[in-house]
Each structure stands twice: as C-alpha cells, then as structure tokens.
Design a protein that fits this description.
Elements lengths: L1 H13 L23 H10 L3 H5 L4 E2 L2 E2 L1 E4 L4 E4 L2 E3 L5 H21 L2 H5 L2 H17 L2 H9 L4 H27 L4 H9 L5 H21 L1 H7 L1 H5 L10 E4 L1 H4 L21 H4 L20 H12 L7 E4 L1 H4 L11 H22 L4 E7 L6 E2 L5 E11 L5 E9 L4 E3 L8 E3 L4 E10 L8 E10 L6 E9 L5
Antiparallel strand pairs: 1-2, 3-4, 4-5, 6-7, 8-10, 9-10, 10-14, 11-13, 11-15, 12-14, 15-16
Helix pairs in contact: 4-17, 6-8, 6-10, 8-9, 8-10
C-alpha cells in the first residue's frame, strides 16, 4: 500500500499540469505537455521533411531554379522538365493523386497526415516547442498568462513572439521564392525594392502563420479544416486509429491501494488528455479533434511503466480488433482497392504525360470566314493560323511541310517554310495558305497532315492532322 501511495504521489507531482483537460471551444489556450516517446520521435522525423520546403527554392538544375512556378511566363520548371499551359492537365492528375493518397491513408490509419505532416500541425508544434523552452511547462505557462505584467514576463513574451514572427517571415519568403527567382527575391526584400505583390504575399503569410500557428492552433483543426468534418465518412471499422482499450481499462481507479482486482488498468491520471495538442479525451472514443498523432499513446505507456502494468492501454487499433474480430488484409478492402486503382491510374497518366511532352507544341486553326477562296486561276485556297510553342531552352530551326491523302494540295511559299526559326520558350503565331487544283479534289473535305521537322535537332518531328475544304458537289 505504501508503494502504491508513493507511485500515486509521484504521478501527481510530475503530471499535475496535465489535469486541465476539458475540451476547449476557443475560450482559452491549450498548453499541451510535451511527452518524449516513440511517436514523438516519429513526429520529429516526419516534421523534418518540411525542411525540403525551405531548401527546394534554392536548388539549381541546368542553370535554372529547380522548382519554379513562373506564372507571368506561364510555365513551371520541375527539375529540368518545363510544364506549359498546354500540359496543365497533368496538374489535375497530380491533385487527384494527392487527394486519393489522403483518402487512402485516412481509410487505413485515420488522420495520419494531420498528426505528422500537416503544415498547421507542424508549425503549431514548432511554435509550442519555442513557447515551452521560453515560458516553461504548461502549468508555468498558465501561471505566467494570469500573472501581472513584469519585466520577466515582458522579456519572455517579447522573445517568444519575436521568434514566432521570424519563423513566419521565413515561411512567407520561402513560399514566394517558388514563384520567382529566389535569390533576387531576397535581394529585393532586403533592399525594400520588392514589388507590391511580393509584399502582399509576404504580409499575408506572416499574418497567417503567426495567427494560425501561434494563437488559433487546435481551433483550426476543429472549426476551419474541412478534413475533420468529413473524416467520419472516410474511416470504417477496419481503420487503425489511436484507441483506448476499454475492456482492459475500465473501471477506472486511482492508485491508492485497496482491492486492485475490481479496477481496470486506467488510473484516470488524465495525462493522455494533457499531452493532446487538441485537448480531446481519447477515452471518450473517436473525436473530430483527434489528429492521430499518437502523443496519448506515449503518455499512457509512460504511466503504465510507472505503475508496473503492460503497455498498450492506448494503442493503434481498429474497431474490429477491439471487438475481437480479425482485421482483413488491405487487398480485400473495397475502399483501399478503389483508392489504389485511382492512384495508380493517376500516376500512370502523369508518367505518360512527362514521357510524351512534345518539345514543340502545335495548334492549328482552319479559317472559317471564308472556309475557302477560289483564286483567279480557278484553284482553291484555304487559310490556317498556326501557333507553335518551342518548349526547349534553345532556338530551333524547323521546316514545315504538307502531305495529303487526295488532291494536289500544296503549301504557298513553300521555300520560305523550309527553314523557319522558333524562339526558345516563345509562342510563334503565323499564317499559312494551302492551294489545290479543284479537278484533283475527290471530296468536299480532304485530309491533310502538317509536319514540323527539326533542322537543329532532326529527331524532333511533330505532326498535326487537319482538313482542306473545297467546293460542295465534288
């Protein structure tokens, strides 16, 4: 009994600042205790992937910024691949792939993205880490918030908010760097010569990061994020989520000695609630506030170690497993099969698109007013407007030729089009005229094929099928 009382006192002393556990609806700030453990280590590891966000704008590839979304120039640079507006359909596939990945992960393991990768969660965790180091434990922070203003309180608050703002500034500049030359952007900001748009983007990101991660925190997950609202229709009994094992934990009871046989393993210390970044009680079942971060598992395991009970009172578990049923394999779950199929189709489409992006894009429009003209010598003339986009980084000399399946269809000024230059990264519009002897036309509409053949790079061949329109009654 004495030993149990000592354990109880130790828990009360170490985790007194976690007893503030009711669900917050925005009236106060949640100060979650930072608990070491395997899921905390995993969270740090996953959060480190965001370093790529800060590094990527400064990487160079073949003399260009490796990742650059040049909206004024209407092209994206992705590690040597140039994506033009004509290839924007691949962006739709990328968005579908990302959405389906999110849906699939949710179906298997709940809001895993929210707990480990979401920018709101990550930035909030960094901000609270700074707050914890400067202002102390949750109990100390709550006392500091309620304490009257003093030199020490002002010093701590100024240091904390200064660091928050510096992170917000770095975040804003990094985001803007994806849309323009990153090194020139830094120069423009430091010399106060940046454009109005650049300052607006920076201001919005500073305000957004500072307010959302510093003040709103879990309220974003509760009220602003639509993902929390729809997760209930995306998970099922097979989804593996942080789950309180009520079979083992109930009835709850404090560590105060007496008959332990009538008590469950849960000692009702509420540490699992105190470490939750959104302030929910995992013991009450699935909640829209749970972001599947596993911090409650680390907390509960640490308590189980102290009271000499096996770990796993809170663990990743599906509802079927909780009810004693066997979890089916992934390849037998309809949702997983559906999401995986759509994901693979999107990936295949993206790979196909990247592999078949033509170096020169042609757009040819047949003139409609008039459809054709009868020349003085009796020949039939059609006009076409051509827009050729050279997607390469060097000027290209090309030739234009015409082939037809029927009729003597020829290109006017053919010698001129034997050697034309397409400027690098430019759209070149020009018009061409095709002539045909009406006696050789076998039908009203004759198929024609226009071919761009590379001279600078002979391996470049781009074709476009169109029609030549003649008089009716042929």
């Amino acid at each position: 009994m004495s030993e149990n009382r000592q354990v109880s006192d130790s828990i009360d002393d170490l985790y007194a600042d976690t007893l503030h556990y009711h669900v917050n609806t925005g009236g106060e700030t949640i100060h979650a205790k930072r608990m070491p453990g395997r899921f905390r280590n995993l969270k740090w590891l996953s959060m480190s992937s965001w370093l790529l966000f800060f590094i990527s704008p400064y990487l160079q590839w073949n003399g260009h910024q490796a990742l650059l979304f040049d909206i004024p120039g209407r092209k994206f640079y992705l590690f040597g691949i140039t994506i033009w507006p004509q290839d924007i359909w691949m962006l739709s596939l990328v968005l579908i792939m990302l959405a389906i990945t999110l849906f699939g992960v949710t179906a298997v393991a709940g809001r895993l993205f929210c707990g480990y990768f979401c920018f709101q969660t990550v930035w909030t965790d960094i901000f609270t880490f700074i707050e914890d180091k400067i202002e102390g434990s949750p109990m100390q922070r709550r006392k500091l918030d309620k304490a009257p203003w003093s030199a020490d309180k002002i010093r701590k608050k100024v240091i904390k908010h200064t660091l928050w703002i510096l992170i917000a500034i770095l975040t804003g500049i990094t985001f803007a760097a994806y849309f323009t030359n990153s090194f020139e952007l830094w120069h423009d900001y430091l010399t106060l010569s940046a454009s109005l748009i650049a300052w607006v983007v920076l201001g919005l990101f500073i305000a957004g990061t500072y307010i959302l991660a510093g003040f709103m925190r879990e309220q974003v997950c509760f009220w602003l994020c639509p993902y929390a609202r729809i997760q209930s229709v995306m998970v099922d009994k097979d989804s593996i989520l942080p789950t309180y094992d009520y079979h083992r934990g109930e009835p709850r009871g404090k560590v105060k000695g007496g008959d332990e046989s009538s008590k469950g393993d849960c000692i009702d210390c509420k540490v699992c609630v105190g470490v939750c970044p959104t302030g929910v009680d995992i013991r009450e079942g699935l909640s829209e506030g749970c972001i599947t971060c596993g911090m409650c598992i680390d907390a509960c395991d640490s308590i189980m170690d102290r009271v000499n009970k096996p770990r796993g009172l809170i663990r990743y578990l599906s509802q079927k497993e909780m009810e004693g049923e066997k979890l089916p394999p992934l390849f037998r779950r309809p949702r997983v099969i559906t999401y995986s199929t759509i994901f693979m189709l999107a990936v295949a489409g993206i790979i196909y698109g990247l592999a078949t992006i033509p170096p020169i894009e042609l757009s040819i429009v047949h003139s409609r007013q008039p459809l054709f003209m009868r020349m003085s010598d009796g020949s039939i003339q059609n006009k076409y407007t051509i827009k050729a986009v050279n997607k390469l980084e060097t000027d290209q000399r090309v030739s234009l030729s015409v082939q037809s399946g029927s009729g003597n269809i020829r290109l006017v000024d053919e010698a001129y089009f034997r050697d034309i230059t397409l400027k690098a990264g430019k759209l070149v519009p020009f018009s061409i005229f095709l002539l045909a002897d009406p006696d050789t036309l076998k039908q009203e509409n004759s198929d024609v094929r226009l071919t761009i053949q590379g001279i600078t790079q002979p391996e470049i061949t781009v074709t476009y099928d169109s029609v030549f329109v003649g008089p009716k009654g042929r």
